[in-house]
Amino acid sequence: MTGLAEALGLRVAVAPWLEWAPPHDIETVAESVAALARQSRPTVLIGHSTGGFIALSAALRVRHTGAVRGVVVCDSGANNCRARSGTRCGR
C-alpha cells in the first residue's frame, strides 16, 4: 500500500494496535487512533476485522473536528456496533 500512496503523493500511517503497549481494549485503542487522526488530518481510516470497529469508534470520537474524511471497513461486523453514546456506528 505504501508504494501506491507514495505514487499519489499521500502519507500512510499504519497502526498495528496489537503491537502497541497494553491495554488492548477497544476504547483505549480507538482513542489512540483518534489521536493519530487529529495529528494527521485530514484522514481516511481503514479497518479490517476488529480494526473496522476501532476505525469507526475513532471516527466518532473526532466527528466534529474534520479530522476524518472517511472510513473504510472490511470483513468486520462493525455495521452492527454501538458507540458508547448509543449511536449506531454505521450512521
Task: Tell me what the structure shows.
The protein is α+β, with helices and mostly antiparallel strands and 91 residues long. Helices cover 36% and strands 14% of the residues. The chain has three helices and two strands. The protein has helices spanning 2-8, 26-39, 50-61, and strands at 43-48, 68-74. Helix 3 (50-61) links the parallel strand 1 (43-48) and strand 2 (68-74). Helix 2 packs across helix 3. The longest helix is centred in the middle third of the chain and has 14 residues, at 26-39. The model has no long low-confidence stretch (mean pLDDT 80).
SSE layout:
Elements: H1 2-8, H2 26-39, E1 43-48, H3 50-61, E2 68-74
Parallel strand pairs: 1-2
Helix pairs in contact: 2-3
What would a concise description of this structure say?
Helix content is 36%, strand content 14%. The chain is built from three helices and two strands, in the order H-H-E-H-E.
